[in-house]
Structure of CobQ/CobB/MinD/ParA nucleotide binding domain-containing protein:
Amino acid sequence: MAKPAVIVVGADKGGVGKTTVSRTVLDYFNANNVPTRAFDTESPRGTLRRFHPDITEIVDMTTTSDQMKIFDTLNTAKASVTVIDVRAGMLSPALGSLRDIGFLDAAKAGQITFAVFHILGPSIASLDEIAETANFMSGAKYFLVKNFINNTSFFEWDQATYNSYFHKIKDATEITIPKLNEMAYEQVEVSSVPFLKFVANKGQKNESANYSFVLRGYVRHWLANVWREFDRIKLTDIVASKEKGSSRASSK
Protein backbone atom coordinates (compact mmCIF):
# COMPACT_ATOMS: atom_id res chain seq x y z
CA MET A 1 0.00 0.00 0.00
CA ALA A 2 1.23 3.49 -0.85
CA LYS A 3 2.37 5.63 2.02
CA PRO A 4 0.33 8.80 2.72
CA ALA A 5 1.19 11.74 0.50
CA VAL A 6 0.97 15.42 1.44
CA ILE A 7 1.18 18.24 -1.08
CA VAL A 8 1.57 21.78 0.24
CA VAL A 9 0.72 24.62 -2.15
CA GLY A 10 1.68 28.11 -1.10
CA ALA A 11 3.79 31.24 -1.31
CA ASP A 12 5.17 33.87 1.02
CA LYS A 13 3.64 36.52 -1.25
CA GLY A 14 -0.06 37.03 -1.95
CA GLY A 15 -1.71 37.42 -5.34
CA VAL A 16 0.32 34.79 -7.20
CA GLY A 17 -2.57 32.40 -7.89
CA LYS A 18 -1.76 29.61 -5.47
CA THR A 19 -5.38 28.48 -5.04
CA THR A 20 -5.75 28.23 -8.81
CA VAL A 21 -2.82 25.80 -8.81
CA SER A 22 -4.39 23.81 -5.96
CA ARG A 23 -7.60 23.54 -8.00
CA THR A 24 -5.73 22.16 -11.03
CA VAL A 25 -3.99 19.59 -8.80
CA LEU A 26 -7.31 18.42 -7.35
CA ASP A 27 -8.84 18.15 -10.83
CA TYR A 28 -5.79 16.22 -12.04
CA PHE A 29 -6.05 13.66 -9.26
CA ASN A 30 -9.80 13.38 -9.80
CA ALA A 31 -9.26 12.65 -13.50
CA ASN A 32 -6.64 10.03 -12.58
CA ASN A 33 -8.87 8.37 -9.95
CA VAL A 34 -6.53 9.21 -7.07
CA PRO A 35 -8.51 9.56 -3.79
CA THR A 36 -7.74 13.04 -2.51
CA ARG A 37 -8.81 15.33 0.31
CA ALA A 38 -7.96 19.01 0.74
CA PHE A 39 -7.51 21.50 3.54
CA ASP A 40 -8.01 25.21 2.97
CA THR A 41 -6.06 27.26 5.52
CA GLU A 42 -7.69 30.54 4.52
CA SER A 43 -9.78 30.48 7.69
CA PRO A 44 -12.60 31.30 8.13
CA ARG A 45 -13.67 32.02 4.53
CA GLY A 46 -11.78 29.63 2.29
CA THR A 47 -11.50 30.07 -1.48
CA LEU A 48 -10.54 26.49 -2.31
CA ARG A 49 -13.57 25.12 -0.48
CA ARG A 50 -15.86 27.21 -2.68
CA PHE A 51 -14.74 25.22 -5.72
CA HIS A 52 -14.23 21.79 -4.11
CA PRO A 53 -16.68 21.70 -1.16
CA ASP A 54 -17.11 17.92 -1.12
CA ILE A 55 -13.46 17.17 -0.33
CA THR A 56 -12.23 20.39 1.30
CA GLU A 57 -12.23 21.39 4.95
CA ILE A 58 -11.30 24.84 6.26
CA VAL A 59 -8.66 24.79 8.99
CA ASP A 60 -6.44 27.19 10.88
CA MET A 61 -2.99 25.67 10.56
CA THR A 62 -1.62 27.82 13.37
CA THR A 63 -3.71 25.92 15.94
CA THR A 64 -2.68 22.58 17.42
CA SER A 65 -6.19 21.13 17.18
CA ASP A 66 -6.39 21.75 13.43
CA GLN A 67 -2.86 20.45 12.91
CA MET A 68 -4.02 17.24 14.61
CA LYS A 69 -7.08 17.16 12.33
CA ILE A 70 -4.76 17.06 9.31
CA PHE A 71 -1.73 15.04 10.36
CA ASP A 72 -3.11 12.62 12.95
CA THR A 73 -5.44 11.25 10.26
CA LEU A 74 -2.94 10.69 7.43
CA ASN A 75 -2.88 6.92 7.90
CA THR A 76 -6.60 6.50 8.55
CA ALA A 77 -8.15 8.80 5.94
CA LYS A 78 -9.85 7.18 2.95
CA ALA A 79 -7.95 9.57 0.68
CA SER A 80 -4.34 8.63 -0.04
CA VAL A 81 -3.36 12.19 -0.94
CA THR A 82 -3.79 15.31 1.20
CA VAL A 83 -3.53 18.72 -0.51
CA ILE A 84 -3.00 21.71 1.78
CA ASP A 85 -3.66 25.14 0.29
CA VAL A 86 -1.64 27.46 2.53
CA ARG A 87 -2.92 30.93 3.26
CA ALA A 88 -1.19 33.75 1.36
CA GLY A 89 2.07 34.80 2.98
CA MET A 90 2.18 31.81 5.32
CA LEU A 91 4.28 29.23 3.47
CA SER A 92 7.42 29.56 5.59
CA PRO A 93 5.54 29.60 8.94
CA ALA A 94 3.53 26.56 7.81
CA LEU A 95 6.70 24.67 6.93
CA GLY A 96 8.15 25.72 10.29
CA SER A 97 5.16 24.11 12.00
CA LEU A 98 5.72 20.90 10.03
CA ARG A 99 9.31 20.87 11.25
CA ASP A 100 8.26 21.43 14.85
CA ILE A 101 5.78 18.51 14.91
CA GLY A 102 8.29 16.10 13.37
CA PHE A 103 6.54 15.84 10.00
CA LEU A 104 9.64 16.81 8.02
CA ASP A 105 11.67 14.15 9.84
CA ALA A 106 9.04 11.54 8.96
CA ALA A 107 9.19 12.61 5.31
CA LYS A 108 12.98 12.45 5.32
CA ALA A 109 12.77 8.94 6.80
CA GLY A 110 10.55 7.86 3.92
CA GLN A 111 7.40 7.34 6.02
CA ILE A 112 5.44 10.06 4.18
CA THR A 113 5.60 11.40 0.64
CA PHE A 114 5.95 15.16 0.84
CA ALA A 115 5.82 17.66 -2.04
CA VAL A 116 5.80 21.45 -2.05
CA PHE A 117 4.39 23.55 -4.88
CA HIS A 118 5.99 26.95 -4.30
CA ILE A 119 4.13 29.56 -6.38
CA LEU A 120 6.48 32.31 -7.48
CA GLY A 121 5.75 35.91 -8.34
CA PRO A 122 7.67 37.81 -11.03
CA SER A 123 9.93 39.84 -8.74
CA ILE A 124 13.30 39.26 -7.12
CA ALA A 125 11.55 39.68 -3.77
CA SER A 126 9.44 36.65 -4.57
CA LEU A 127 12.51 34.69 -5.58
CA ASP A 128 14.09 35.52 -2.24
CA GLU A 129 11.48 33.23 -0.70
CA ILE A 130 13.39 30.28 -2.16
CA ALA A 131 16.29 30.82 0.24
CA GLU A 132 13.86 30.76 3.17
CA THR A 133 12.00 27.70 1.95
CA ALA A 134 15.21 25.81 1.16
CA ASN A 135 15.77 25.19 4.87
CA PHE A 136 12.71 22.90 4.99
CA MET A 137 13.14 20.92 1.76
CA SER A 138 15.17 17.94 2.94
CA GLY A 139 13.08 14.85 2.17
CA ALA A 140 10.60 16.80 0.01
CA LYS A 141 9.88 17.01 -3.69
CA TYR A 142 10.19 20.71 -4.39
CA PHE A 143 8.45 22.36 -7.33
CA LEU A 144 8.98 26.01 -8.26
CA VAL A 145 5.84 27.15 -10.07
CA LYS A 146 5.80 30.07 -12.49
CA ASN A 147 2.10 30.88 -12.69
CA PHE A 148 0.96 32.98 -15.65
CA ILE A 149 -2.76 32.55 -14.94
CA ASN A 150 -3.17 36.06 -13.51
CA ASN A 151 -1.51 37.78 -16.47
CA THR A 152 1.81 37.75 -14.63
CA SER A 153 4.74 38.91 -16.75
CA PHE A 154 7.95 37.22 -15.63
CA PHE A 155 11.11 38.99 -16.63
CA GLU A 156 13.80 36.90 -18.25
CA TRP A 157 16.41 36.24 -15.57
CA ASP A 158 19.98 36.32 -16.76
CA GLN A 159 22.01 33.16 -16.19
CA ALA A 160 23.67 34.43 -13.01
CA THR A 161 20.30 35.33 -11.47
CA TYR A 162 18.85 32.00 -12.54
CA ASN A 163 21.73 30.08 -10.98
CA SER A 164 21.69 32.04 -7.74
CA TYR A 165 18.01 31.29 -7.07
CA PHE A 166 16.90 28.18 -8.88
CA HIS A 167 19.97 26.13 -8.01
CA LYS A 168 19.82 26.78 -4.29
CA ILE A 169 17.97 23.52 -3.76
CA LYS A 170 19.14 20.22 -5.15
CA ASP A 171 16.65 18.58 -7.50
CA ALA A 172 14.18 21.49 -7.47
CA THR A 173 11.93 21.27 -10.54
CA GLU A 174 10.28 24.11 -12.44
CA ILE A 175 6.61 23.97 -13.48
CA THR A 176 4.94 26.48 -15.76
CA ILE A 177 1.21 27.20 -15.49
CA PRO A 178 0.20 28.91 -18.75
CA LYS A 179 -2.13 31.86 -19.08
CA LEU A 180 -5.85 31.20 -19.42
CA ASN A 181 -8.13 33.41 -21.51
CA GLU A 182 -9.38 36.15 -19.14
CA MET A 183 -13.06 35.76 -19.96
CA ALA A 184 -12.88 31.99 -19.55
CA TYR A 185 -11.14 32.36 -16.18
CA GLU A 186 -13.71 34.88 -14.99
CA GLN A 187 -16.60 32.63 -16.04
CA VAL A 188 -15.19 29.70 -14.05
CA GLU A 189 -14.79 32.00 -11.03
CA VAL A 190 -18.40 33.16 -11.29
CA SER A 191 -19.63 29.58 -11.74
CA SER A 192 -17.76 28.42 -8.59
CA VAL A 193 -17.12 24.96 -10.04
CA PRO A 194 -13.92 22.96 -10.60
CA PHE A 195 -12.28 23.47 -13.99
CA LEU A 196 -13.11 19.86 -14.84
CA LYS A 197 -16.83 20.37 -14.22
CA PHE A 198 -16.83 23.60 -16.20
CA VAL A 199 -15.36 21.77 -19.19
CA ALA A 200 -17.99 19.03 -18.78
CA ASN A 201 -20.75 21.70 -18.64
CA LYS A 202 -21.79 20.60 -15.14
CA GLY A 203 -22.80 22.56 -12.06
CA GLN A 204 -21.52 21.98 -8.52
CA LYS A 205 -24.08 19.22 -7.93
CA ASN A 206 -23.38 17.62 -11.33
CA GLU A 207 -26.55 19.07 -12.79
CA SER A 208 -26.43 20.21 -16.42
CA ALA A 209 -25.21 23.76 -16.99
CA ASN A 210 -25.19 26.15 -19.91
CA TYR A 211 -21.63 27.46 -20.06
CA SER A 212 -20.27 28.95 -23.27
CA PHE A 213 -18.95 26.40 -25.76
CA VAL A 214 -16.12 28.77 -26.64
CA LEU A 215 -15.08 29.43 -23.05
CA ARG A 216 -15.24 25.72 -22.23
CA GLY A 217 -12.93 25.13 -25.17
CA TYR A 218 -10.39 27.60 -23.83
CA VAL A 219 -10.49 25.99 -20.38
CA ARG A 220 -10.19 22.48 -21.86
CA HIS A 221 -7.12 23.44 -23.90
CA TRP A 222 -5.51 25.25 -20.96
CA LEU A 223 -6.19 22.43 -18.50
CA ALA A 224 -4.66 19.91 -20.91
CA ASN A 225 -1.47 22.01 -20.99
CA VAL A 226 -1.38 22.22 -17.18
CA TRP A 227 -1.87 18.47 -16.86
CA ARG A 228 0.92 17.91 -19.39
CA GLU A 229 3.22 19.62 -16.89
CA PHE A 230 1.96 17.34 -14.11
CA ASP A 231 2.49 14.33 -16.35
CA ARG A 232 6.03 15.53 -17.05
CA ILE A 233 6.93 15.55 -13.36
CA LYS A 234 5.14 12.19 -12.93
CA LEU A 235 2.89 13.56 -10.18
CA THR A 236 0.74 10.42 -9.90
CA ASP A 237 3.88 8.28 -9.57
CA ILE A 238 5.18 10.55 -6.81
CA VAL A 239 2.04 10.21 -4.69
CA ALA A 240 1.91 6.45 -5.30
CA SER A 241 5.35 5.90 -3.74
CA LYS A 242 5.58 3.08 -1.22
CA GLU A 243 7.46 2.87 2.04
CA LYS A 244 11.21 3.17 1.75
CA GLY A 245 12.62 -0.09 0.46
CA SER A 246 9.39 -1.13 -1.32
CA SER A 247 8.84 -1.11 -5.05
CA ARG A 248 7.11 1.98 -6.40
CA ALA A 249 3.53 1.59 -7.50
CA SER A 250 2.53 2.49 -11.03
CA SER A 251 -0.29 5.03 -11.23
CA LYS A 252 -1.57 4.23 -14.66
User: Anything to note?
Assistant: The two ends are 15 Å apart (CA to CA). The chain has one domain: 5-179+216-239. The CA atoms of residues 142 and 171 lie 7 Å apart. The mean pLDDT is 86.
